[in-house]
Design a protein that fits this description.
The chain has 14 helices and 12 strands. With about 350 residues, the chain is of the alpha/beta class. It folds into 2 domains: about 270 residues, P-loop containing nucleotide triphosphate hydrolases (Rossmann fold, 3-Layer(aba) Sandwich); about 60 residues, Beta-grasp domain (Ubiquitin-like (UB roll), Roll). The two termini are about 25 Å apart. Bound molecules: guanosine-5'-triphosphate and magnesium ion.
Length: about 350
C-alpha cells in the first residue's frame, strides 16, 4: 500500500488537512505528548473513469485505487537533535512513499505559532532543514559503521564513496532530490529511506478570507516553483467543516462562499501524480477494480499486483485503453472489431487508464 506522510511545524494544520483528505473526523488539537502511533486512514482516489466503468459493468463488487495517509506529530526546529515530539515520528515519515508538507498561512490569534509570527517561506525552510539533518545523520551512522570495520569489501567502498557524495550535497543544505544520481546509484540507495529524496507536495493552509493575492503565500510559491515542487492552496478549516456536510448542503454552502471546487479532490489527484502513480483497471460482472502501479511498470508488474501466480504464469496481457473502450461503444466485442483490443507481452509498459486482462498458465 502506498503511503503519504503529513509533515510540518507544530500547529500548522496537519490534522486538519488529514481530516479534509480522509474525512476521518480526527480531533483537531495539539498532538498529545505520549502518543506514539500516528493517525492513519485509507483514501479512495477519485477517478471519473472508474465510476463510469462501474456504471457500465454493474459489478457485484467495486474496489477503487487507494492511498494511505498518515498524520504525524509536528516537527519543531531542532527536531533532528531530539527537540519536541516530532523526532520520534520521523521514522513514520521515513516509511512513507511521499511527503505532504503543510505550511501555515492562516492567521488565527487563538492558535500560537511555534516561531511566533506567520512566515510560510521561513517555516517551510525550517522543516526542510530538519529533513536534511535527519538524512545527514542516517549517512553519518552508516559511514561510521563502514569505517569501523578493519577491512571493507569493494561493495562497501563503493557505497561509502556514494554516501560521501550525498553527504557533501546535504552539507550545502540542499535536499537529495536535487542531487544528480545515475540509475545505478539510485538502485544502491533503495535500502535507505532518505526523506529529502521523497517526492514532496506542499500544502499552503489558508484562512477562507485569504483569497487572490496573498504576498506571504506567493513568496513560498515562487521558491517552490523554482525547485519544481508541487504546491496546492487549501482553506483547511473551512474544507474540514465542508466534509461534515451532506453533499447537497455542501454544494449550497460552496455556492454561497463562492468556491468552485473542493480542494480535497484536487489535492488527492496531485498527490497521486507527484507519487508518479498510474491506475489500470480490471473489469467484469464480478468486480470492477482500479490497481495502482508506478510509471514505467510493465505488464508483468500489473499481473503481479493482482496475484503472484499471474506474474509467474504470465503468457500475454489483453489490453484496451479506457478511452478506446468507451469510443468503441463500451463492449469488448466492439473493441475487437475496431482493432483496439491488443495482446501485449511481458515488456509492455502499462499506461494510465489501461483495461487489462491477464492470460496465464500455472
Ligand atoms: N483559522 C484557521 N485555523 C486553523 C486552520 N487550520 C488549522 N487551524 C487551527 O489550528 C489549530 C491546530 O490545528 P491542527 O490541525 O490540530 O494542527 P496540527 O498541525 O495537526 O497540530 P499538531 O499535531 O499539534 O502539530 C486548531 O485549533 C485548528 O482549528 C485554518 O486554515 N484556519
Ligand atoms: Mg495534529
Amino acid at each position: 500500500m502506498l503511503k503519504c506522510g503529513i509533515v510540518g511545524l507544530p500547529l500548522c494544520g496537519k490534522s486538519t488537512v488529514f481530516n479534509v483528505i480522509t474525512r476521518a473526523g480526527v480531533e483537531v488539537k495539539p498532538y498529545a505528548s505520549g502518543k506514539t502511533e500516528p493517525n492513519r486512514a485509507l483514501v479512495s482516489v477519485p477517478d471519473a473513469r472508474f465510476d463510469r466503468l462501474v456504471e457500465i459493468f454493474e459489478p457485484k463488487k467495486v474496489t477503487p485505487a487507494a492511498v494511505e495517509f498518515v498524520d504525524l506529530a509536528g516537527l519543531s526546529r531542532d527536531a533532528s537533535k531530539g527537540a519536541g515530539l516530532g523526532n520520534s515520528f520521523l521514522s513514520f515519515a521515513a516509511e512513507s512513499d511521499a511527503l505532504l508538507h503543510v505550511v501555515r498561512v492562516f492567521t488565527n490569534p487563538d492558535v500560537p505559532h511555534p516561531e511566533d509570527t506567520v512566515d510560510p517561506l521561513r517555516d517551510w525552510r525550517i522543516v526542510e532543514m530538519e529533513l536534511i539533518y535527519r538524512d545527514l545523520s542516517v549517512i553519518e551512522n552508516r559511514l561510521s559503521r563502514i569505517s569501523a570495520k578493519k577491512k571493507n569489501t569493494l561493495e562497501e567502498s563503493v557505497e561509502a564513496e556514494l554516501l560521501k557524495k550525498l553527504q557533501d550535497h546535504l552539507m550545502e543544505e540542499r535536499p537529495l532530490r536535487e542531487c544528480l544520481l545515475t540509475d545505478e546509484e539510485r538502485k544502491k540507495l533503495t535500502g535507505f529511506t532518505f526523506l529529502t529524496l521523497k517526492p514532496e507536495l506542499v500544502i499552503l493552509n489558508l484562512d477562507e478570507g485569504q483569497r487572490g493575492s496573498v504576498p506571504q503565500a506567493e513568496a513560498l510559491e515562487a521558491e517552490l516553483e523554482g525547485k519544481g515542487l508541487g504546491v496546492v492552496r487549501l482553506f483547511g478549516s473551512l474544507e474540514m467543516d465542508l466534509t461534515q456536510l451532506e453533499p447537497e448542503e455542501r454544494a449550497e454552502f460552496m455556492k454561497e462562499l463562492d468556491i468552485a471546487e473542493l480542494g480535497r479532490d484536487r489535492l488527492i489527484h496531485k498527490a497521486y501524480r507527484i507519487l508518479g502513480l498510474i491506475s489500470f483497471f480490471t473489469s467484469g460482472k464480478d468486480e470492477v477494480r482500479a490497481w495502482t502501479l508506478r510509471q514505467g511498470d510493465n505488464a508483468v508488474d500489473a499481473a503481479g499486483a493482482i496475484h503472484s501466480d499471474l506474474a509467474r504464469g504470465f503468457i500475454r496481457a489483453q489490453i484496451v485503453a479506457y478511452e478506446d473502450f468507451i469510443a468503441a461503444g463500451a463492449t469488448l466485442a466492439a473493441c475487437r472489431d475496431k482493432g483496439v483490443l491488443r495482446l501485449e507481452g511481458k515488456e509492455y509498459p502499462v499506461k494510465d487508464g489501461d483495461m487489462i486482462e491477464i492470460r496465464y498458465n500455472v
